[in-house]
């Protein structure tokens, strides 16, 4: 017969293995909402400009292609498309993504950088 300690250790290992399997099977791709933008373009564009300045000050400026894409996105008359474009550009430089659910649950993951 197995002792209670051996059974407890065995159960912990099985639970850990199952949870790791579930976590590995989840979709890890970061996706933005496809509905209307959650924020207006103007405040986001202002924050992106401040981020440009900060990155330049720190010696890690955005590349000329990214700057051109940022300028094109901000000039886009379609606000939803402009917000999505800015999010896509910034996602390429993200070290970490955080997804906050309405029920106050939070999930983090590796960024695209």
Structure characterization notes:
The protein is mostly helical. The protein has a domain of 77 residues. The chain is built from four helices and two strands, in the order ααααββ. A two-stranded antiparallel sheet has the order 1-2. Helix 2 packs parallel to helix 4 and helix 3 runs antiparallel to helix 4. The termini are far apart. The model has no long low-confidence stretch (mean pLDDT 78).
Brief summary:
This protein has 4 helices and 2 strands; from the N terminus they run H-H-H-H-E-E. The protein has helices spanning 4-25, 41-57, 64-75, 79-91; strands spanning 96-100, 106-110.
Main pleated-sheet profile: 2 strands, antiparallel
Number of helices: 4
Unreliable stretches, pLDDT < 50, 5 or more residues? none
List how many beta strands DSSP finds. 2
Content of β-strand: 5-15%
Helix content range: 55-70%
Q: Output the helix-strand order.
A: HHHHEE
The Cα radius of gyration reads 21 Å
Report the principal-axis shape.
elongated
Q: How many angstroms does the end-to-end distance come to?
A: 52 Å
The average pLDDT is 78
Topology (elements, then pairings):
Layout: H1 4-25, H2 41-57, H3 64-75, H4 79-91, E1 96-100, E2 106-110
Antiparallel strand pairs: 1-2
Helix pairs in contact: 2-4, 3-4
Which key features would you list for this structure?
9% strand; two-stranded antiparallel sheet; 4 helices; 57% helix; mainly alpha; 113 residues
């Amino acid at each position: 017969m197995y002792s209670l300690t051996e059974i407890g250790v065995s159960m912990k290992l099985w639970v850990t293995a199952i949870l790791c399997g579930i976590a590995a099977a989840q979709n890890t791709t970061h996706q933005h909402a496809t509905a209307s933008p959650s924020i207006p373009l103007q405040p986001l564009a202002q924050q992106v400009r401040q981020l440009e300045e900060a990155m330049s000050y720190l010696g890690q400026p955005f590349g000329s292609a990214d700057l051109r894409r940022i300028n094109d996105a901000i000039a886009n008359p379609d606000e939803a498309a402009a917000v999505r474009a800015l999010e896509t550009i910034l996602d390429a430089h993200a070290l970490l993504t955080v997804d906050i659910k309405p029920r106050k649950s939070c999930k983090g993951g590796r960024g695209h950088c």
